[in-house]
Amino acid sequence: MQSEFVASRSADPKDSRDSRESRNGSPQLDAVSLGIIEQLQEDGRRPYAAIGKAVGLSEAAVRQRVQKLLDQGVMQIVAVTDPLTVGFRRQAMVGINADGDLEPVADALTAMQEVEYVVMTAGSFDILAEIVCEDDDHLLDVINKRIRVLPGVRSTESFVYLKLKKQTYMWGTR
Amino acid sequence: MQSEFVASRSADPKDSRDSRESRNGSPQLDAVSLGIIEQLQEDGRRPYAAIGKAVGLSEAAVRQRVQKLLDQGVMQIVAVTDPLTVGFRRQAMVGINADGDLEPVADALTAMQEVEYVVMTAGSFDILAEIVCEDDDHLLDVINKRIRVLPGVRSTESFVYLKLKKQTYMWGTR
DNA sequence: TTTACATTCTGCGGATTTCGCAGCTATGGG
DNA sequence: CCCATAGCTGCGAAATCCGCAGAATGTAAA
Question: Positions of the region Disordered (chains A, B) (predicted)?
Fold first, then answer.
């Protein structure tokens, strides 16, 4: 339950006077930290010394920066897998429309373990949620018995995945 | 350009007689490998010895299994970041409808660096693509000048992200 | 300018981890 | 039965990680 990770972190008051920050509360990253992230996006286990050589820093400095990036929640180093290989054969994106405040709906979705991804959007859906399930029955159950019954939910539309073509984790590498 | 990673790998003929395989060509994972993945989902840099202790294997055996999982493409160990923090302020999911064969369209999307995620779906969209951009201009440019002009593309519908609520990488941890 | 303080970097040992390899065991053909 | 393969263990050498002390650097107040 630890590697759950949300883009807009709530600005923690006690570190809000920390470093340079942009107006949304996110710490500003310099070119060196960006370089470190880039290295770790290629290989999450790359040794600190090798990273240091690439970005022009000592091993210890890289280590400190990486630790800080992890502590701040800017970056995570994790294993990512192919869901199909790990036994989840049905995935779907679900578009949701709801009445009133969307936060409770989004929070309820977030609490479901089958839901990998929740985002509030502008457009003809209020919320998009990605669901990873073991089989059709499981998927049907989640959509009909758990999502469509949430208070406020007016309608849903499902897009069952037929073939995943691309999935990268290369932000910042451009 | 290396940590791009596609769920349904094309069955490479030369390793198709490898190990146990399910009918979609994916190697079957036993409980021990699942346990290793789970450990690395919590912390991608966890030492092999610690993982071994958790799953009941020697350090060397864990190392061999991890290497194999990486080689097979079942798993990747990478840094994942919050796009907002790294300077990408506009994200959107784009639903696409197209005529004829969808593969060329999906391939063209896959080739774009702004596109993080491409999936072919059943439902009222043929393809869903997630786009990560620096600003509104950039986003507009990608959608209008690069996606909507692709041969075969009939229509698109965009869902601009307002707030990302959840994003996990915990497949297999349930 | 000077002083005080906080941040970040470097260098360096000691502890830990990784790495490569040889040997052992179990399984499945031929 | 014998051979080949896959997977595990143990172990020593090399590399890496880790904590810490001291040196730069930057900032803010006096």
Answer: 1-28
